[in-house]
Design a protein that fits this description.
This protein is mostly helical. The chain has 11 helices and 5 strands, in the order αααββαααβααβαβαα. The protein has 2 domains: 73 residues; 146 residues, Muramoyl-pentapeptide Carboxypeptidase, domain 2 (2-Layer Sandwich). 59% of the residues lie in helices and 9% in strands. Pfam families: VanY.
Length: 268
């Protein structure tokens, strides 16, 4: 009887192997479940990343494209119609009665509105480079131009003792009569003519870069025989960027360039 009681006591105090095994199995299942959850989360993250990546790239490309377009719009100047941009007006060639300047006012000077984008950009770029360029003259109507011409004739007669016939000829080479000055086109602008400006770095910047904006120095000593006007370092004329760059490259004044263009058209 005592032995049976001892056996039951030993049985009650012995480790319960079945219960320990169940706990271990539960831990294994939980570990496996956790691994599956982590795997699913990682997979979901990959799927989300792949789904968002193309859209982000597309938006970035679109943004870059938009910025590029804006910059191009700001940098690219309009291409003018040669039928007006290459208009020649000189003492030997009066302005056509059908020509009409499309005037606007910029910094108290009247110019043809079609040259304004190029003029404003040239002045802005000069300022960014450290030079302030001041436009002192632009459009002059026929009556005002004729008055300047007559004043120049009187000046030459009174101060130089020239006859009227000689004074008229000499005056026309400096201040053309009304109807014979390209100032009536609104495409010509003048800058200060004093020696301080003409010897400044700002003026040299203007000379070097003007063709990039469609402007050329219109009257030079070596072309006086073609233009009919004396050298005027302060006078610049708009002809369009492509034309201006070609004129500089070929060493042509406007009269020569128009003839060249005409010959090219005929030969083609």
């Amino acid at each position: 009887m005592r032995n049976n009681r001892q056996e039951r006591v030993l049985a009650d105090t012995a480790p319960r192997g079945g219960s320990g095994a169940g706990i271990r199995r539960l831990k294994h299942w939980m570990a496996a479940l956790l691994a599956v959850i982590l795997l699913l989360v990682a997979l979901l993250g990959v799927l989300v990343w792949q789904a968002l990546r193309p859209q982000t790239g597309k938006n970035s490309a679109s943004a870059v494209s938009d910025v590029s377009t804006v910059l191009q719009q700001e940098d690219v100047l309009p291409v003018p119609d040669d039928s007006w941009a290459l208009t020649v007006v000189s003492p030997d060639k009066k302005i056509s009665s059908s020509f009409t300047a499309q005037l606007t006012t910029y910094e108290n000077v009247q110019v043809d509105k079609r040259i304004l984008p190029a003029l404003k950009k040239m002045l802005a770029d000069a300022k960014a480079a450290g030079y302030t360029l001041q436009v002192t003259g632009g459009y002059v109507d026929a009556d005002a131009q004729e008055k300047l011409y007559q004043q120049k004739i009187q000046e030459l007669m009174q101060n130089k003792g020239k006859t009227r016939a000689v004074a008229e000829s000499d005056a026309a080479a400096v201040v053309p009569p009304g109807g014979c000055s390209e100032n009536q086109t609104g495409m010509a602008v003048t800058f200060p003519s004093d020696s301080a400006f003409l010897s400044s770095d700002g003026y040299h910047w203007l000379l070097n870069h003007c063709v990039e904006y469609g402007f050329v120095r219109r009257y030079t000593d070596d072309k006086e025989g073609r233009t009919g006007l004396q050298d005027d370092p302060s006078h610049f004329r708009y002809v369009g960027t492509n034309n201006a760059q070609t004129m500089r490259k070929m060493g042509l004044c406007l009269e020569e360039y128009v003839t060249y263009k005409g010959n090219q058209t005929v030969s083609n």
